[in-house]
Amino acid sequence: MDVDDIRVFIPSKNYEASQAFYQALGFRMSKASNDLSIFELGKSTFFLQRYYDKAFAENLMLQLIVPDIEKAYRTVAAIEGHDFRFEPIKNEPWGRVVYLWGPAGELWHITELQAR
Questions:
Q1: What is the mean pLDDT of residues 71-75?
Q2: SS (H, E, C) 36-80
């Protein structure tokens, strides 16, 4: 089997607010339907859905690999007017990470991987 991509479906507590948040983060949005949007940044894509389940949203974790964690942190820290939270850069055994909780409670591990 050959694979080109894998896309996750992220829930939203407030669909329009989540759309605005991910655009503020730098993702480009295109509409797939009234209840589904596609977000792209570089070669990474995901779906945002007009669907919310608290237990699912708060247990969803994603890892976004970046080449420069300092630049990613500055991007996250500059976002204003959205319901989200994040922590400063942390050193983990696998690399440097910014933990970011999105508007529905989804947890992003924004990671600059450690050189092997």
A1: 98
A2: EEEEEECCEEEEEECCCCHHHHHHCEEEEECCCHHHHHHHHHCCC
